[in-house]
Amino acid sequence: MNKPFTPQLVYFEPKALDYPLGKELKEKFDKLGIETRFTTSHNQIRDLPGETDAQKYRIAKSTLVVGIRKTLKFDTSKPSAEYAIPFATGCMGHCHYCYLQTTMGAKPYIRTYVNVEEILDAADKYIEERAPEITRFEAACTSDIVGIDHLTHTLKRAINHFGQTELGRLRFVTKFHYVDHLLDAAHNGHTRFRFSVNADYVIKNFEPGTSPLAKRIEAAGKVARAGYPLGFIVAPIYIHEGWEEGYRHLFERLDEELPQDAREDITFEFIQHRFTKPAKKVIEKNYPKTKLELDESKRRYKWGKYGIGKYIYQKDEEDELKDHLYGYMEKFFPNAKIEYFT
Fold it and tell me: What does the alpha-carbon distance between residue 266 and residue 262 come to, in Å, rounded to a whole number?
């Protein structure tokens, strides 16, 4: 994925054109000669092209829906923030293991919301309610917002906005390297810019349609030099032949790229590979040739809060993963902070 995302097909909710961003996007796509259609609601796209489920899925992943976010009640977003802030839904990446496949089901198209000011006003109210505490907003719960921001600049608008608040903080994570337009945003240190990183094997085999690791790391260097607080999510941590060396190599490359002065404020989040029964079904349908190991008999079952349990690595495997990754982090980034390992 070395070219920024351009949708093949765009749907507009009619009212989206009442907003400046909606108008701007319509003009942009008309100029580019991209087909645009109208839809009554961003939740109801009825006439998506494609003969088979597999085709429909692929086409939906390259379809953008421009709509209005009606519910301005934010979900809570543990463990990384107090709230999820909804600027977009869906992703153009094709990561085989991704949980959005299950949560978005039959609607894997990408949605972007044009009522940005209303969403930011709602965020301000949440900040007020929690004052004098700091309130963190996660912008990447259901999307990879950096993947579409070169088209919308919504994220840039949000970074500037949170830069001006005293008690609001923004955070998001990306697998894309299209960060140049964000480097001059007035972030004021209030946005934590995180990159999802992994061993080469995982990126090559399970993350098609995303930026290669070298490009992500290079982008992290640019972001660090622009003064943003930086973070890395190592996920999913996946056992494969040579994984110890693979993850070590990842940390060595980060160490080569990142400037010394950025290292005082780096966070790491570690998430081991897990899957649910329903997710396994969907993954095998969407990516029938995947090499992803989804063998329940090799895993232990962990009961979930909402009745759906996950299959995770055996305790001794988990401990070994943890020892190695913590060890690499302490060796290369002794001042970094571990937010969690799950």
Answer: 7
